Amino acid sequence: MNEPDRADLLHYLQAQRDSVVAIVDGLDEAALARSVVPSGWTPASMIMHLTGAERYWCHGLLAGQEVGPDPVGIGAVQAYREQWARSDRALADLALDDRPRGPVPPEHVPLSDSVRTVLLHLIEETARHAGHLDVARELIDGATGLGPR
């Protein structure tokens, strides 16, 4: 596949994933399970949301595969890392202009006309939630400016 923008898209997605992990690095399980925002989400639940998002968009929608339940018995960060490795393998088999192989719900049509569009959505989604995690981390222990830049 000659896709000059593939490397850039994957680079920016990975940079955001790395930011998520760096932001919560050093937090113990109690801190990961602590909500510091009125909506009630925790750093662990936000990371599991991102894990589920990658599983849904890369496997269910793009690859047309069965999407299983959230992993159990492992921490949120480990589950996220394992999922992004699976996502990367699924994406490697798809061209950026490929259409989704799985069913696309009506509300996801604008975000899913191609692998490229889904990658852009995942970058945006991961960056948005990395920002949420930045704020939560500051509220938990005062740490700021975390994550690769």
From TrEMBL:
A Pfam family cross-referenced in the UniProt record is MST
Which InterPro entries does the record match to this protein? DinB/YfiT-like (IPR034660), MST-like (IPR007061)
Name of the molecule in the record: DinB superfamily protein
Could you tell me which species this protein originates from? Microlunatus parietis
